[in-house]
TrEMBL record:
GO terms of biological process kind: iron ion transport
Annotated Gene Ontology cellular component terms: cell outer membrane
Protein name, UniProt field: TonB-dependent receptor
Family membership noted in the UniProt record: Belongs to the TonB-dependent receptor family.
UniProt organism field: Phenylobacterium montanum
Keyword Ion transport attached: yes
Short sequence motif named TonB C-terminal box, residue ranges: 744-761
Domain TonB-dependent receptor plug: 57-165
Length: 761
């Protein structure tokens, strides 16, 4: 089963105009003098490759947030969903546990948590798109930076997406010998170690780098049932070998081979009954049994889960990235990548000690991708990038639902095949399996023309061809011991429904203009259109009619912004405002009778904006503020007979604020003592489009901190850190499962703290 405007009334364009007027009022005094050098107390420059060129962040006319490797390390960012603490308008839910986040960016997310689905916010590792949850693994170690691009992507990236892109970029080998090692210990018996060694292997022609990470911790969630272990544990390892070759003076190739393995005790589910009959109550009552009602004294981090197995995640990947300088100011980039992974998630989906609903998810995925780009660096006003992309993903997906395995339907004292046959689907196991193959082929281009010294025109187009095939789809039912009893759906049924294939072509693109003042202030305005391809329904179990193909999503974005450097570059202020026209959002429709279809909601809109401010008022103090404001509204659509017009999108809080500060407390001859603190504050958000109050998370804030000492030679350091310092209780996912009379709830991570010691050479 699936678990299942900046100012109100002001348009984004009007808001942008107000920002421009405000800038005009203070630009003459705030902007640095032309040609004045950056002082010691200026905001550090951030270099990104968001547009597939190495550029300063302040010169990129798109909404992008960037975190350097030093920031990620100092702030103990260990999981990809940790970056939500630093990027406004970015949220993550984890209905399938840590390591498999569902990102929501500016309110654009997905409601189907099947392991075979691709989300609207793409995740890239070293410019390679990770198409499936099973391919994510452990990647957040030895990183150069993380970039988060907001809005539709397609003219610069291999994969076309509606919501945005998260680029995770690892460190490349260098020809300077070096190494870094770190060990740490924290509460819940949390052990962590990571490191890297780097240097030349063959003169100035070949360099290598090996990096690793390992983490192990006891679970933080207690299971009150006798003999049960702690849940939400950590147990994972990962390594990456990188080789950098420079065979000629105008070519460079980077080979990366990586693997990861995780086998912790799985997460716990908090179950909350929808009424007094308890979880599973309406069915249990039919057989003279009671549904589960949690004890009143059950703590916020305590559950009573019958299923406490270990999850398994394993990944392997290899990629070859080549850059070749060609004559006539041209460069060729080629990226070839192969990924393989498997993921097994067993869960007590009812969050109860009885056995109303237990689900196991399994996926095995492999992917091949090739991206080829030709980029110009002409001396004249015109530059272009021309790309070709191919991606093939193959996913084997299997889901098994165990339903009311503790009900003796015929009352003979034994729960076996006779009970399933008499009470179907009570006392049964119902599962499906299939192989999904998708290929995506595209050509894309991005161009710019410098019209004057201040005005640049930009544009791009993309043609995409998507093909999908669903092979061997079958659904069967078994008794609770796993003995086969019969088929519910067979491959021939799916073929008869016409839901085993799709073919689709799409043309999307972007056009924009930006204006740069003599003092370096940047203003931009653009229109872009994104596309997210067709999707198969992985949650068909009882009828061939459930096996549907959802149409593609499209999103049109009108966006404007400004990137300002103020007060002699002691402050950077980045602003953006946008209007989204979001059509055919893919959504899983779960009926009270357990039937499920993947459908499209016709139309929604999102209006909003962001502010990111970094300031350095003194040499010892740096401040950061991020603010995301949005208003989402479904314009047209129905689910379960309910008109959703006027409802908010899921995972779309109206206000999201990030605050951070770095303070050098003392700069001594022996070293530097520094304090870092950050907080993320999120307003109320709904976890589904029905906007039920019981499926909402009220406003909450998380506070994190780090106190560290770094030696004067930068060779070693020690730090004390804490996350969720105030031990805020919150949920990162709540799903109403009407069929089993419960709210399925994932509890957010409680307070974590520890100490780290690191050494570099």
């Amino acid at each position: 089963m699936t678990k299942s405007c900046l100012l109100r009334g002001a348009t984004p364009l009007a808001t942008l105009l107000m920002l421009g007027v405000a800038h005009a009022a203070f630009a003459q005094t705030a902007a640095p003098a032309s040609g004045s050098p950056a002082g010691a107390d200026t905001v550090s420059e951030v270099v990104v490759t968001a547009q597939k060129r190495t550029e300063r962040l302040q010169d990129v006319p798109v909404a992008v947030s960037a975190l350097s490797g030093a920031q990620l390390s100092n702030q103990h960012v260990a999981k990809v969903d940790d970056i939500t603490s630093f990027v406004p308008s970015l949220q993550a839910t984890s209905p399938d546990g840590e390591g498999t986040p569902i990102f929501a960016l500016r309110g654009v997310s997905m409601s189907d948590y099947s392991l075979s689905q691709d989300g609207p916010v793409a995740t890239y590792f070293d410019e390679t798109y990770a198409s499936a949850f099973a391919l994510l693994g452990i990647r957040m170690f030895d990183l150069q930076r993380v970039e988060v691009l907001k809005g539709p992507q397609g003219t610069l990236y291999g994969k076309n997406t509606t919501g945005g892109a998260i680029n995770i970029i690892s460190n490349k080998p260098t020809f300077t010998p070096s190494g870094d090692f770190s060990v740490g210990y924290g509460n819940y018996n949390h052990w962590q170690a990571s490191g890297d060694v780097n240097g030349p292997l063959l003169g100035d022609k070949l360099a290598g780098r090996f990096a690793f990470t390992a983490e192990k911790a006891n679970g933080w969630m207690s299971d009150a049932l006798p003999g049960k272990p702690k849940l939400d544990a950590l147990d994972g390892y990962a390594g990456r070998l990188s080789l950098l070759a420079r065979p000629t003076s105008n070519s460079e190739f980077t080979l990366r081979i990586a693997g990861s393995w995780q086998n912790p005790i799985n997460y716990g589910i908090k179950g909350e009954p929808l009424d007094s009959t308890g979880i599973g109550g309406p069915v249990y009552n039919l057989f003279g049994l009671q549904g589960y009602v949690p004890p009143a004294n059950l703590g916020p981090d305590t559950v009573q889960n019958a299923e406490t197995a270990r999850r398994l995640a394993e990944t392997w990947s290899a990629s070859l990235h080549g850059d070749i300088q060609l004559p006539h100011h041209l460069a060729l980039t080629t990226i070839t990548a192969w990924d393989w992974g498997k993921l097994f998630i067993p869960e007590a989906s009812d969050g109860a000690p009885n056995q109303a609903l237990q689900i196991s998810y399994f996926a095995r995925a492999r992917q091949f991708a090739q991206d080829l780009r030709l980029t110009s660096n002409f001396t004249g006003p015109f530059d272009f990038m021309l790309g070709a992309y191919f991606n093939r993903e193959e996913i084997y997906n299997a889901t098994m639902n165990t339903l009311y395995a503790d009900i003796d339907v015929n009352g003979d004292g034994v729960i076996n095949a006779q009970d399933c046959l008499a009470g179907f689907p009570v006392a049964c196991r119902v599962g499906n399996s299939f192989t999904q193959i998708k290929t995506s082929t595209a050509v894309y281009t991005d161009m710019k023309y410098r019209l004057t010294d201040h005005i640049t025109l930009r544009g791009g187009l993309r043609y995409t061809r998507d093909d999908g095939r669903l092979g061997g789809f079958e659904s069967q039912f078994q008794d609770v011991q796993g003995n086969f009893l019969g088929y519910l759906v067979q491959p021939s049924d799916v073929a008869a429904e016409g839901a085993n294939r799709f073919k689709r072509s799409n043309v999307s693109g972007k056009a924009g203009v930006d204006y740069k003042t003599s003092s370096g202030q940047l203003f931009y305005l653009s229109f872009s259109r994104g596309y997210r391809g067709d999707a198969f329904n992985a949650q068909g179990f009882f009828s061939p009619a459930e096996v549907t193909v959802a149409k593609p999503e499209t999103l049109s974005d009108i966006e404007g912004g400004a990137k300002l450097q103020l007060f002699d570059r002691r402050m950077t202020l980045n602003l953006s405002a946008y209007h989204y026209d979001y059509q055919n959002m893919q959504f899983i429709n779960v009926t009270p009778t357990l039937l499920q279809q993947l459908v499209n909601l016709p139309k929604a809109t999102v209006d909003g904006g962001e502010l990111e401010l970094t300031a350095r008022p003194t040499h010892a103090l740096s401040l950061h503020l991020g603010l995301g404001v949005l208003s989402s509204e479904i314009q047209e659509g129905q689910l379960l007979g309910q008109d959703l017009k006027g409802h908010q999108l899921a995972n779309a809080p109206k206000i999201n604020t990030t605050i951070g500060a770095d303070w050098t407390i003392a700069d001594l001859s022996a070293g530097t003592l520094a304090l870092h603190g950050d907080s993320v504050i999120t307003s109320k958000q709904y976890f589904d489009v029905f906007n039920g109050e019981a499926q909402a998370q009220k406003a909450y804030g998380l506070v994190n901190g780090n106190l560290g000492f770094r030696s004067s030679d930068h060779r070693w350091g020690v730090s004390l850190w804490a996350k969720n310092l105030l031990d805020q209780h919150y949920y990162n996912s709540i799903i109403k499962v009407q069929s089993f009379n419960l709210n399925y709830m994932h509890v957010g991570t409680p307070r974590m703290f520890g100490a780290n010691l690191d050494y570099s050479f």
